[in-house]
């Protein structure tokens, strides 16, 4: 079934069962619904809870941009664009989970609504809790596709470097759930201001951000895929410091 038909079913389902209040004029999103083109935008226009979350998300995003230096603000704008680009794919996938697709199975509008609400809540929790001014590596770090926690450095002797712990993952929204799982290791060495992840990848501070480098390219050889990645050739990411909160605390293992 085409996604546009799923969206129509979502609007009918939610209006019938209380998930949407189409007459609630107070629950308007941050954008003009007459110009909505993407499926997640149309869904947001039809769901009062999503519209409320979108308005809060827009305010939190503007405040976050205003709180950051120019380079970091530009990076957050890029990350927000990527987040929005993935919303349609996320709700399409949630309406019919790829790993259980069978011809006799129909789409699930309630799952698509729940997924978009969850994505909005997670993003809102990230933007409302930016930890601007963080001085070192330790803490929760997030982007549109990566969540990790770095534990404080320890060790550091005459012959051995300090080490940090890293737990979390980078993920992609899609049928195959490609991901890089950083595990829960506490022996990533820190030298010259960089965390060595393996022989080819490292993490370093860039302004307010934590950058996992080198940046991924379309020409990355398959053999360069780290052992901790599954169907994902690079763990590269640009992460923002986030204070732990009720929605996000670093224990993120849900499937996207």
Number of strands: 9
Helix content: 25-40%
SS summary, helix count: 5
The low-confidence parts are: 12-23, 99-105
Average of the residue pLDDT scores? 83
Radius of gyration: 20 Å
How is the largest sheet built, in terms of strand order?
Answer: 1-2-3-4-5-6-7-9
Domain module tally:
2
| SSE string | HHHHHEEEEEEEEE
The coarse overall form would be globular
Strand proportion, as a percent range, falls in: 15-25%
Structural class: alpha+beta
Sheet having the most strands:
8 strands, antiparallel, barrel
**Distance N to C terminus:** 21 Å
Detailed description of the structure:
The chain is built from five helices and nine strands. It is of the alpha+beta class. The protein has two domains: 3-128, no CATH class; 139-242, no CATH class. The protein has an eight-stranded antiparallel barrel. Strand 6 (202-206) and strand 7 form a beta hairpin.
Write a short abstract of this structure:
By secondary structure, this protein is α+β, with helices and mostly antiparallel strands. Helices cover 35% and strands 23% of the residues.
């Amino acid at each position: 079934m085409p996604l546009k038909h799923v969206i129509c079913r979502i609007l009918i389902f939610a209006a019938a069962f209380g998930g949407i209040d189409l007459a609630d004029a107070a629950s308007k999103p941050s954008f003009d619904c007459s110009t909505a083109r993407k499926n997640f935008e149309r869904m947001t226009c039809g769901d009062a809870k999503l519209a409320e979350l979108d308005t809060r998300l827009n305010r939190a995003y503007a405040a976050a941009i205003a709180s950051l230096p120019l380079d970091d603000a530009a990076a957050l704008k890029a990350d927000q664009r990527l987040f929005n680009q993935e919303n349609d794919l996320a709700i399409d996938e949630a309406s019919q989970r790829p790993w259980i697709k069978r011809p006799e199975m129909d789409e699930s509008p309630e799952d698509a609504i729940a997924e978009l609400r969850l994505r909005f809540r997670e993003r809102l929790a990230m933007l409302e809790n930016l930890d601007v001014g963080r001085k070192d590596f330790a803490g929760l770090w997030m982007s549109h596709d990566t969540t990790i926690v770095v534990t404080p450095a320890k060790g550091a002797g005459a012959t051995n470097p300090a080490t940090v712990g890293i737990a979390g993952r980078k993920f992609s929204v899609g049928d195959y759930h490609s991901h890089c799982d950083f595990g829960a290791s506490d022996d990533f060495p820190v030298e010259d201001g960089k965390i060595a992840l393996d022989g080819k990848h490292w993490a370093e501070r860039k302004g307010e951000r934590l950058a996992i480098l080198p940046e991924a390219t379309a020409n990355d050889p398959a053999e360069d895929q780290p052992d901790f990645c599954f169907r994902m050739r690079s763990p590269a990411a640009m992460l923002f410091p986030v204070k732990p909160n009720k929605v996000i605390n670093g224990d993120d293992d849900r499937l996207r």
